[in-house]
Amino acid sequence: MEWILEESWRERLKGELDKRYYRELVDKVQEEYKNEICYPPEDKIFNALNLCPFDKVKVVIVGQDPYFNPGQAMGLSFSVPEGTQLPPSLQTLYRALNISLDASDNPSGNLTNWVGQGVLLLNTTLTVRKDKPNSHRKYKWWRFTDAVIKALDADREHIVFMLWGRIAQRKERLVHVDNDRHMVLKAIHPSPLAVCRKGEWDGKEHFTCCNKYLNEHGIALIDWTVVSEQVDE
Predict the structure, then answer these.
(1) Between 141-155 and 20-35, two packed helices, what is the crossing angle to 10 degrees?
(2) Are the beta carbons of 57 and 117 closer than 8 angstroms?
(3) What is the pairing mode between strands 38-39 and 128-129?
(4) pLDDT (tens digit, 9 = 90+) per residue, 124-161?
(5) Long-range Cβ pairs for the range 206-215 (8 Å, 24+)
């Protein structure tokens, strides 16, 4: 099937889409989808870009690769579909935001509300094989997501980049923060294993730091607590 990419992103990335590595990536990933169970659904591979046009981006949250268990990945880093049990990494984020995890409250893990406010939920690798984390890194998705970051860095100003985890932090080299052009915030990945080694998640202040920066530049703040209302994609 053809991968549909939102018009503003297609315009910004048109040079990338013609490169040999990208054509090879598409061929190899499509072959994987034919022969293996892969995530997210193929029509949601570009969900992060399609739901957040280039000129709407205010914040970029960079994760690793999609959830590799059934029914979780939806093409948005850290987000899961409505009604899906919260993965441990998302529970870490909610604790940092003081969002109740009481089962009776049944908080939604669908972060489309964030996307609607200008948060690009981007993984460094956009696809994965079932039960095999990092299985599609070999297809050079990192080159494509590098191009996404480079485009934002070059043609936009005052974007907050949140880089969570060692792999995500490799994108830091692509962002120019001189003269306060952008802001970069780094933390360990919010998975329980990483957090346990540190004692607590060191990204818990990112949300307030982000809004402070946006406010200083006259940009509408992100309401990070709006996560429990169902939003149609």
Answers:
(1) 130
(2) no
(3) antiparallel
(4) 999 999 999 999 999 999 999 999 999 999 999 999 99
(5) 206/96, 206/162, 207/96, 207/97, 209/160, 209/183, 209/185, 210/59, 210/160, 210/162, 210/183, 210/185, 213/158, 213/160, 213/183, 214/58, 214/59, 214/158, 214/160
CA neighbours closer than 13 Å in the CB half-sphere of residue 63:
24
Taken as a whole, the chain contains a residue count of 233
* Residue whose token pair is 């669908």: 110
The strand ranges marked E within the chain are 38-39, 59-63, 119-123, 128-129, 160-164, 183-187
pTM (predicted TM-score): 0.94
From the list 65, 146, 153, 180, the catalytic residue is 65
Tokens in use for 150? 């480079």
Query: What is the rounded CA–CA span in Å between residue 29 and residue 33?
Result: 6
Stretch 16-34: mean pLDDT: 96
Is 202 known to be catalytic?
Answer: no
| Single-letter amino acid code for the residue at 6 | E
